[in-house]
Amino acid sequence: MADKRVVVDSTSGMSYEGEPVEIVASEEPWSSFQLADGSTIKVKVVGAKAFRTEQYRPDGAPVYVLMSQLVLSVDSPESLMRTSGSSAKKKKRK
Length: 94
Known about the structure:
By secondary structure, the protein is mostly beta strands. It has one domain (6-75). 0% of the residues lie in helices and 49% in strands. The protein contains no helices and five strands. Strands 1, 2, 3, 4 and 5 form a five-stranded antiparallel β-sheet that branches. The model has no long low-confidence stretch (mean pLDDT 85).
């Protein structure tokens, strides 16, 4: 197998040398948060690419970097909804 090492920049600002590892299966469940105003926020992480770095944790396990996207869904009660075409703040003319 040819060496396919790449430099991967993480969201923490660190760079790692790593090898791409194919994602062969994934489960992407939603996390759900109920808010006091009656809204529900649902969030899930969708993995795009995985890389095994040259780093290891103290227990010997390899460190991976996952390129991912956060998907967000919001359900709010009718009382918080705005009618179509209305803006957040309308300026009054003097």
